[in-house]
Amino acid sequence: MGNALGFLYGKCCKPTTTDDSLGPHGVSAATVGVSALAHDLFNFEITSKVPEGLGRYVVSSRKAQANWYRKILVAWKQAKPPPQTAEEASRLVTEILKRNQKADVEGLLSFYGLPLPHTLVEVSTEAPVSLPEGVLFEFQTLPVDPKAVADGDTITVYVSTSEPVVSSSVPKEVKVAAVQRAKARETRNYTRADELHQKIIDSGYRVLNIENEEVLAKKFRIRLRGIDAPESQMPFGKEAQEGLLKIVQWKSLKVLVYGEDQYGRCVGDLYCNGIFVQEAMLKKGLAWHYIAYDKRMVLAKWEKEARQKRIGLWASSNPEKPWDWRKNRRV
Q1: What is the set of domains in the chain, with CATH numbers?
Q2: Model pTM?
């Protein structure tokens, strides 16, 4: 068994359950389809059998299905790095089966809850080498906790106090409390340590455990510049939040801050592993171009692409704009 396949099978696969939120193969928003596909490829390598139930989603014979799995297995092992996200797995399957019937390709992807080919987007904008005009400051975040993604355009991040933008402004009482907390933990006085940590948190900081090392970090709330996603209570609000979550969870972000909004949030552009987050959100149909506050025409272009494909919120003929939704509820 290939190392990549073995890793995914051993680390990612979850047993199927009877949870109604799961798809036909035990796939949920949490497990995605990558784990299930890796599990079935592992089984196929041993038994040469395709999963039961797949025939309800595709039109070709089991012999043809076995041929697909054989090809996908080879490609999966050769991929460096191997697919780890739903989109990466979908791209690999789509490429390997590009000569097959559309119904079979889409049926196989649907079986695993993977994105269909027409919903996949290419993100082209990388982080700028030099700071663009208007940027006040930039910073690199610590890995983003999934719980910190409030909705499709707002996220809470933490920045290590060793970062230049933060290091010179850490209050003395926070530094002292962090040192005292560490000493309290050394002596197993956890009640005192928790009291000191609460004091640190109340000051807008937190001590985070990053790779078994405690890091003092400052909290920032970020409003994604130039886009407006559906509010949590709106139709497609949950999908927008989950879409942003899939991009940033457990990743370190590069943030270019242009200003602060009326709620005290930093308004900025986000980059994640070379991906411009706003571009991804717009192209996936998970947000509007917020033209009232950002005139960049490229944002309008990316929104238009999603509209034309009728993906995401644009599958609806006339989705309500979040700024109209908020206005109507203030009346």
Answers
A1: 29-112 (no CATH), 137-329 (2.40.50.90)
A2: 0.73
